[in-house]
Amino acid sequence: MPSERPLQHCTDAELVPRWADGEREAAHELTVRYYRPVCGFLLKRVQRPDLVEDLAQETFLEALRALHNGTRPAHFGAWLFGVAANRCGKWFRRRRPLLFDPAEPPTMLAVPSAASVQEELEEQEHLRAGLAKGLAYLPEETRTLLDMKHRQGKTCAEIAGELGRPVGTVKSQLARTYKALRTSMGPCGEERS
Amino acid sequence: MSPLTCHEVEERIDLCAVGECDAAEQAAVQAHLAHCPACALAYREALQLAGALDLHFQGPERLQRLEDKLEAERRPRRRPLILPYPRRVAALAALVLLTFGLQFLAWPPRESSGPGMALDIPRAGREGPDNKVVAAFPGRENAPEKSTAPRPSGAILLWASRDARWRPVTERRIELTSGEMWWEVASPMVVAGHPLPPFEVSTPAGTVTAREARFAVAVQAPATVETGWPPQQVVQVNVFKGTVQLTNAP
User: Fold this and answer.
1) How far apart are CA A180 and CA B30, in angstroms?
2) What is the pLDDT of residues B196-229, one digit of tens each?
3) Nearest-CA neighbor of B184 among B149, B136, B216?
4) Residue B39 in contact with residue B66, Cβ under 8 Å?
5) Cα of B53 to nearest chain A Cα, Å
6) Which of B7, B9, B2, B17 has its CA nearest to residue B34?
C-alpha cells in the first residue's frame, strides 16, 4: 500500500518496489532523483555529450526490466550506477577493443561501490551548482546564445544567420562564455582532490 | 595544419567540444592533446561543460522523453498483427523455395538419349554462377513424359551449366560427368524412421558428400596445366554453406 508521506521524503528502498509495481509517481520521483547524476556519470566516462541521452535511457530501461524480473537491489543508487557502467562497457566494446595494461586495470569503467555513490552524487551536485552560479551571472544576450546552441541545437552559423551577426563574433562570444563557465564549474571530478 | 601551441589549443578547445571546429582544426587539436596532459584535462572539462549545458537546457524535455519510454515499456505489449519486415522477407523466401522445390519434385529433369542427362535450363538460369544463385528448375515444358530414373530426394538443384551431363544413380547419389551443377542439400531427413544417407555427387575424379550444404561441382576438361603429365581430370568444388567431404576416385 502506498505510504502517506510525500514521495520526495521517501527513501529509494520505499520507492523501488512501487516503481516495479507500475506506480508512475514513484517512477517519476526516482528518475528525477537520478537522471542528472546518471547523465553526469555517463558523460564522465564516454566523453561524448551527444551519446549521453541515449545511454541514460538505456540505463533506466534496463533497470526497469530488471525490476520487473524481480530484482530488488539493496542499494538502488549503487545498483543503477552499476547498470550505467555496464552500458558504458557495452558502448566501449562496440566502439573499439579495450586495451588495458594488465598491471593497471581500468578504473573509469569500474562499478561504483555503495559508498562511492554518495560521492558521485555530491560531485554531480557540485558541478550542477557551479554551472547554475556561472549562468546566473551571464547577461541575457549570452544566455540566449546558449539557449539557441544547447536547447535548440543550432550551429554557430545558423545562430549568426538568425541574429544577423558575423559567425566569428558568435563563435568568440560563445568561446569566452564557455571558458568563464568552465572556471566557475571547477575541474573535472576525477582530478578534484 | 601546423602543430598548435597550448595557447592556440586553449582558444579552440571549447568550440571543438561543442562540434564547432572544422575537421582540420579538430585533428590539430587532437594531435596536441595526445601529448599535452594539461590541455587534455582542459578538453575533458570542456566536454563536461558541453554535456552539462545540454542537460541544463534540455533537462525537462529529456526527462519527459525518458518517462514516456519507461511508461511505454511498462504497458503490456500487444502482439503485432503484421509480421516484422525480416520475418516477412524470410516467410516469402521460404514460400518461393517451397514452390520451386515442389515443382522440381513434380517434374524432374528430362532424360536425354545419351549416357548422361543434358538439362534444358530456363532463360533465367542460364546466366551462370557469377550472376548469383538462380533457381533454375526445369519447367513443365521440359518435363519428361514418364521418368523411371530415381529422383534426387532432399536436395535441390539450384543451377546447372548447359553442358552439364549427369544421371541420378539413387535418390541420394548422382553422377556428374561434365559441366557444372549447384546443389542445396537440406538438413538430414528422416524417412520411415531411418535417416537418409548423405547426398553424393560422384565425378570422374572423386565423390563430393554433403549432409547440409550449398555447393557447386564443376567437372573440367582433362588438363595438364596443374596436374602434369599424363593429363588428369580436374574437378572444382566451391562450398558456399556448410561443409562437404571429398573422396578421391579409386
Assistant:
1) 22
2) 788 999 998 889 999 888 889 988 776 544 555 6
3) B216
4) no
5) 6
6) B9
Grid coordinates belonging to B152: 534426387
Contacts of B75 in chain A (CB under 8 A): none
The 3-state secondary structure of A128-174, one letter per residue: HHHHHHHHHCCCHHHHHHHHHHHCCCCCHHHHHHHHCCCHHHHHHHH
| Residue partners of B105: CB distance under 8 A and separation at least 6 | B151
Q: Which of B232, B115, B241, B229 is nearest to B177 (CA)?
A: B115
Burial class (CB in 10 A: 0-12, 13-18, 19+), A23: middle
Residue B58 contacts A, CB cutoff 8 Å: yes
What's the gap in Å between the CA of A110 and the closest CA on chain B? 19
pLDDT digits (tens, 9 = 90+) for A104-163: 444 444 555 656 677 777 887 888 888 888 888 888 888 888 999 888 888 898 999 988
What is the Cα–Cα distance from B4 to B25, expressed in whole angstroms? 9
- With beta carbons under 8 A apart, name residues in chain A contacting B14: 174-175, 178-179, 182
Task: Round the CA-based radius of gyration of chain A to a whole number and report it.
Answer: 20
Sequence-separated (6 or more) residues with CB below 8 Å from residue A18: A2, A25, A26
CA distance A82 to B190: 50
pTM beyond 0.80: the answer is no
Residue B154 main-chain phi, psi, to 5 deg: 75, 15
Distance from CA of A30 to the nearest CA of B (A): 10
Q: Which residues pair with A34 in a beta bridge?
A: none
